[in-house]
Amino acid sequence: MKIKKIIFVIVFLTSLSIFGLYALINQEKSNISYLEKRHLSYVETLSVNNWLTRKFQESIDSTITDNFWMRNDWLKYYNKTNMKLNSIGNKILFILFNSKSEQKFSIQKVNEKISFIKELSYLIRNPYIYDETVEKGIKSNIEKINFLHDKYENIEFYIYLPTMPHEANIFDFGTESADYLKLFYETKIPFKKLEIHNIYQLKEMYFKTDHHWTKVGAYRGYTDIIELLFDELENPKIPVNEEKFNDIDFYGSHSRDIAHSIELEGDSISKYVFDLPEYKLYINNVLTEEYGNYGAYVKGVVNNTKGFDHYNWMYQRREAEIIFDTDQKNLDNILVISDSMSNAIRDILASHFNQSIFVNLDKYERDIGDFQIEEYLNRRDIDKVLVMVSLGNYFPTGELKHLK
Amino acid sequence: MIFSSLSFLFVFLPLLVIVYYISPSIRYRNLVLFVFSLIFYAWGEPVYITLMIISIINDYIHALIISSFKNKKNMIGAKTALISSIFINLSLLIIFKYSSFIITNVNKIFLINLNTINFSLPIGISFYTFQTISYTVDVYKNRVKAQKNIIILGTYVALFPQLIAGPIVRYKTIENELQNRSVSWEDIYIGISRFIIGLGKKVLIANQVGLIADKIFSLGINDLGFTIAWTGIIAYTLQIYFDFSGYSDMAIGLGKVFGFKYLENFRYPYISQSVTEFWRRWHISLGSWFRDYVYIPLGGNKVTTLRYSINIFVVWFLTGLWHGSSWNFIIWGLYYGVILIIEKKLFLNLKFSLSKIIKHIYLLIVVMFGWVVFRTDSIAEAKTYIFALLGGFGNSKLNLFYDLSIVSLFPFIVLGIVGSTPLIKKLFDKINQYIIGSILYDVFLLIVFLGCLLFLINDSFNPFIYFRF
Questions:
Q1: Contact A2 B18 (CB under 8 A)
Q2: How many Å lie between the alpha carbon of B6 and the closest alpha carbon of chain A?
Q3: Interface contact A37-B188, CB threshold 8 A
Q4: What percent of chain A is predicted at pLDDT more than 70?
Q5: Is A153 helix (H, G, I), strand (E, B) or coil?
Q6: Is the alpha carbon torsion for B271, B277, B280, B283 positive or negative?
Q7: 8 Å CB contact of B409 and A16
Q8: DSSP-based three-state secondary structure for A356
Q9: What residues are paired with A334 via a beta bridge?
Q10: Are A20 and B11 inside 8 Å of each other by CB?
Q11: Is B62 a catalytic site residue?
Q12: Least confident of A35-39, A111-115, B230-234
């Protein structure tokens, strides 16, 4: 009995030392987590200032966690455990309140951010909590757009809301996002949102491992926007071809959010091809040859590592300012304030305008500085302004907070 | 630094054990413990560590002065030194913990506008201040001798296991161990086992049910129905117990690893059948501190009923205030004062006997309503929450459980309810008598530890949607 206890103590304490040492020796400034798209923590230099501001101490804490032995596997096990716990939790709810009948699908929470719909092999973001702060945020952002609409009578303003899967109200999530739509409908600004009526539409329009839309969803968003902007006076472009990249498995942000802990088939990547007019492309004021990296996909020279972000790579990812100039002087100029949902449709949308300026407020703030929309509207000859960001970006922490 | 951080578990603890056990004598070992304890504290409080050092020096000098006066039979001098020591200790506590609260209330009462001083609360100041006060009082009362070695006194005050969240250890309890202690493999094994159990209580139960409580307590009136409100208070009732008793277990376990035998701080308080019994089982070191250093000096219960009631109210006012600088804590303390008087003067006189189950339900309801006042930020919030518990806002939509993403945390409530009774301990005590049983116990400990790691490692998982590098 005594020997057993000695062995336990020695093994336990030795293991602690070894794992601690491993994490600290393993750390490097350049270590990157491709799962989280960020640099892993490293130990800061020990200096009086770093000590007093606790920078050094915090860096040790996060370095050990970030560089822990087989960290990605620990994350996977955590998510798997969480799913089991969710299933037990559902049973407890059922026993206590007979509540299972309220769930049409077995939506299993994987972690704080993501749930898994087993019947559909589909990952979905957990619903937001809509509270007074969120409501205030949405109201205030809509008011900002309303203010501009009232001030600039010669410019047409539009709002398009790309409904996200967890806001679609087709699962019994009890999401209250629908309650906030009235805030959009109450504005004087023409408004439209992506309608998702059933599960089949959802599966078709959104990747099962990512929060962005597929080619079908993107085309649906594009046709919606054309309808909104031109009031049926202009037809959307019809795809002339479809390109499929069958050898690529796309595991998007939702899969990364759960550390790829659920074995799912990756999404396939394909794209509608359109007959578009010639254009000049300026990304952050630099004349650029190609929009995104579609050419690389056609040539088959693409990174196919699990978790590689094909949506942001094939389509041009968010930039502070992207300008398409089709030199069709008889057409309008448009300013589009958008998040990454517009990546898949910018070039098609631009074909309907002379100049199309796409601004991402987050990137603009980070890379250029304050985005002063009024100064922008005065300087450029803008005819139409389209705000197309998802509901989350109307929240107080969302991208529209940068709209001054 | 906290025990449930990976830097403590994987760097601080193994390093300390190695350095401590290669040190040749108790003198060096005390020095090692003192230095490591200062690092432990400074890790989280790099500036306020000076306060603790001032406190150590203050009590070291005052205790020597008290002792010197007592040797010369100068009782006035000794008493003056004691008062001076207590004054300095309490002044530090009042300035850093209560000044903002006091100024705010003075402004309200006298309709003036004094500027509030917003000090951040130095970690553990309430604990080490009570330890140092008890030390000088005990020197004055001849219960202990004044310590001449400042490193030994410093080790007592700063000893990291109990430094930031108790238990409040009296100098008398570990006086001998500070100068002469031995540790066996058995002690280290028991200490590590106790530490792992405490870590499990904290990480696997308190932190998880705490998520439920946090989400529910932040709900607005529209969502706060009967079911959700009760779920929230049950979760908080478990959170506060497992958080605090888990920390005490870790402290007692670590003390054991380094040869200190701390007294128990919690004895399954939720199985009590009266509030009087509850407070004999809950935060025992604080209760006994107030008993010995406030209640008994005030006369205890050997006085008139009126004086007894005043004594009780003073003690419970201070108990509430000790927990935090807010009226909610004071009301929470006085609430217990009233209930204890009722229990002692009314229930005991009536001598009627209720079934154990009814007594138990009574205790849990009283305690849970008390926790509402303790957990909420204002009296108005507490009233709203209690109204919800009484069904005033109707029932909640069950879908709210899904919206709040707390369904996966329900198993921890069940685990917490079972864990707050002595059932699991009794089971392991029984099977531990056999070699196979003790191996199973070790496996259980490792599973608990790995379970904790699973949650601690995940804490830093922070997937960004967009590129950040």
A1: no
A2: 6
A3: no
A4: 92
A5: coil
A6: positive
A7: no
A8: strand
A9: A356, A384
A10: yes
A11: no
A12: A35-39
Within 450-469 of B, beta carbons closer than 8 Å to A belong to 453-469
**What's the mean pLDDT in A104-122?**
79
Q: Among B5, B189, B399, select the one facing A61 at the smallest CB separation.
A: B5
Please give the full DSSP string across B78-108, using - where no structure is assigned. Answer: HHHHHHHHHHHHHHHHIIIIIHHHHHHHHHH
Chain A neighbors of B1, CB-CB under 8 A = 57
Residues of A in contact with B459 (CB under 8 A): 65
Contact flag B408-A89 (C-beta cutoff 8 Å): yes
Mutate to test the interface with A, among B209, B230, B408 (most CBs of A within 10 A): B408
More confident residue, B277 or A102: B277
Q: How far is CA A360 from CA A185, A383, A388, in A?
A: 24, 19, 10
Give yes or no for residue A112 having a pLDDT over 70. yes
Say what the pLDDT of residue B39 is: 94
**Which chain A residues are Cβ-neighbours of B462 within 8 angstroms?**
36, 38
Give the whole-angstrom CA distance, residue B237 versus residue B231. 10
Burial per residue of B413-451, b for 16 or more beta-carbon CB atoms within 10 angstroms, e otherwise: bebbeebbeeeeeeebeeebeeeeebeebbebbeebbee
CA angle centred on A60, ends A59 and A62, rounded to 5°: 65
- pLDDT interval class at A217 (50, 70, 90): very high
User: Which pLDDT value is given to residue A102?
Assistant: 43
Tell me if chain A has a CB within 8 Å of the CB of B346: no
Q: What confidence category does residue B467 fall into, taking pLDDT thresholds of 50, 70 and 90? A: very low
Chains A, B: CB contacts under 8 A, how many?
A: 180
Provide the token pair at A15: 């293991």
Q: Give the CA angle between residues B77, B82, B86 to the nearest 5°.
A: 150
Give me the phi and psi of B127, to 5 degrees please.
-75, -50
Beta-carbon separation of A38 and B435 below 8 A: no
Which DSSP state fits B203? I
Supply the DSSP symbol for A213. B
% of chain A surpassing 90 pLDDT: 35
Residue A229 CA to residue A219 CA, distance in Å, equals 15
pLDDT digits (tens, 9 = 90+) for B31-61: 999 999 999 999 988 888 999 999 999 999 9
Asked if the model's pLDDT at residue A372 lies above 50, the reply is yes
Contact B1 A57 (CB under 8 A): yes
**What mean pLDDT is predicted for residues B7-15?**
93
Tokens 């204002």 belong to which residue? B378
Residues of A within 8 A of B457 (CB-CB) are: 65, 68, 71, 74-75, 78
The lowest-confidence range among A168-177, B123-132, B408-417 is: A168-177
